DNA sequence: AAGGCTTCCAACCGCGTACTG
DNA sequence: GCAGTACGCGGTTGGAAGCCT
């Protein structure tokens, strides 16, 4: 069934708004206030769809808009918030007073996505013989100007000498970007539930595909047995379901379908993961293994490490070249629990070896999933440090 | 100078959801 | 509970315009 149009479209104007139309809309809203978008065009005498009026007002005519170039601080904030929230532009915009979701979306698509891509390439290209590295020594994404290809300059730069539509009015009631971000960080560090609505984003769609795949073959499929002994060699568990490790995607590696905790000693443990606490599970080590293996590298446990730092090395599978080491010492964090602490900065370098774009996409998917899963925190604690991983993913 | 390529961004579109009767 | 309506959001598009050859 075709959805009825939001308003009668016959005879309505489309395309660019004229200054006269803007003036009519502004005056009408100044008198009558926002809202009632459907009836607004008719009452105001505009030959526009109500939706179009709303969009024009919100994205361009509102008096509290902050026009002009995105500042360095805003740039950084957008990157951080996008790492946390994904493509939820309105949510990101709510942390940037005076900026609209459309503006941020456009800015991301035209500036930041390319900038981040460039940053990964640059990081990889400058890495020769990699030794232990800390994340702080890596170039920050926002510090690297994108290599601009030919094309037009910013439309704002062209416009900024025009008086048309330049309205700036500070909004004293909203948090500053810095304050807003601080609240997000604090919130997340406490591992409290972040009040996020479902994200109908591309990332989520990809995730759904993975989940469906797992469900399809996870229970008694040809790839795995539906029966398995429990840890104590006891009876066969029922309703067992396994996480499918898709060689083509890191994110697949950490998805476990609903089920009970079970014996991880499956005969093909590289393909099936332990399911944790009846929820979505996350096997950190397998995520990383898959990540590196895909890129033609492998990780070896260095059991002869005298410093007992749970150090691991990563070598090129073909050449045997030592690419990186991972050590709890690198992080400087307390390792009294004998947990492995990863040097996420080095992980970034490794990720770019073969297919940077694909690797980066996976990283983003991974991060999005982490934020959107309610239970990831408690599960992940079994394998490493959440904050380090997040710092790496959102760097 | 001109044409092609590339970029930018305002605006459109469809969908999900909240609201209302 | 249901259907219709309105709104908000995110993905996509179209065209203007800059840059390069």
From TrEMBL:
Disordered as annotated region, ranges: 216-236
Cellular component annotations (GO), alphabetically ordered: nucleus
All copies of domain Myb-like, residue ranges: 9-61, 62-112
Record Pfam families: Myb_DNA-binding
Main location: nucleus
Keyword Transmembrane helix: no
Subcellular location: Nucleus
HTH myb-type domain location: 9-61, 62-116
Keyword Nucleus: yes
Lineage top rank: taxon: Eukaryota
Swiss-Prot/TrEMBL keywords: DNA-binding, Nucleus, Transcription, Transcription regulation
Recorded GO MF terms: DNA binding
Name of this protein: Putative transcription factor MYB-HB-like family
The species this protein was found in: Lupinus albus
């Amino acid at each position: 069934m075709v959805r009825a149009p939001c308003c009668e479209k016959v005879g309505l104007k489309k395309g660019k708004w004229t200054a006269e139309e803007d003036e009519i809309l502004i005056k009408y809203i100044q008198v009558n206030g926002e809202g009632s978008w459907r009836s607004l065009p008719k009452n105001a005498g505009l030959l526009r769809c109500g939706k179009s009026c709303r969009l024009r007002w919100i994205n361009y005519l509102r008096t509290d808009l902050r026009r002009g170039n995105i500042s360095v601080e805003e740039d950084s904030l957008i990157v951080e918030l996008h790492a946390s929230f994904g493509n939820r532009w309105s949510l990101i915009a709510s942390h940037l007073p005076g900026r609209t979701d459309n503006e941020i979306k456009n800015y991301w698509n035209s500036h930041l996505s390319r900038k981040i891509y460039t940053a990964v390439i640059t990081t990889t290209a400058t890495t020769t013989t990699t030794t232990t590295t800390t994340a702080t020594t890596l170039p920050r994404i926002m510090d690297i100007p994108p290599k601009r290809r030919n094309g037009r300059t910013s439309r704002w730069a062209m416009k900024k000498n025009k008086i048309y539509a330049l309205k700036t009015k500070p909004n004293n009631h909203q948090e500053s970007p810095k304050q807003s971000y601080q609240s997000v960080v604090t919130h997340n560090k406490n591992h409290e539930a972040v009040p996020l609505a479902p994200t109908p984003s591309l990332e989520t769609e990809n995730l759904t595909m993975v989940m469906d795949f797992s469900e399809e073959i996870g229970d008694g499929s040809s790839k795995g047995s539906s029966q398995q002994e429990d840890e104590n060699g006891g009876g066969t568990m029922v309703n067992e379901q396994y996480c499918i490790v898709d060689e083509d995607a890191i994110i697949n590696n950490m998805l476990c379908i609903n089920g009970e905790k079970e014996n991880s000693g499956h005969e093909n443990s590289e393909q099936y993961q332990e399911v944790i606490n009846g929820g979505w599970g996350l096997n950190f080590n397998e995520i990383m293994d898959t990540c590196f293996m895909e890129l033609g590298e492998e990780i070896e446990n260095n059991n002869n490490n005298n410093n007992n730092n749970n150090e691991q090395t990563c070598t090129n599978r073909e050449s045997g070249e030592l690419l990186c080491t991972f050590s709890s010492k690198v992080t400087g964090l307390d390792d009294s629990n004998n947990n492995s602490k990863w040097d996420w900065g080095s992980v970034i370098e490794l990720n770019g070896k073969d297919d940077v774009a694909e690797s980066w996409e996976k990283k983003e998917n991974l991060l999005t999933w982490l934020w959107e899963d309610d239970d990831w925190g408690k599960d992940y604690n079994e394998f490493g440090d959440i904050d380090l991983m997040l710092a790496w993913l959102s760097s």
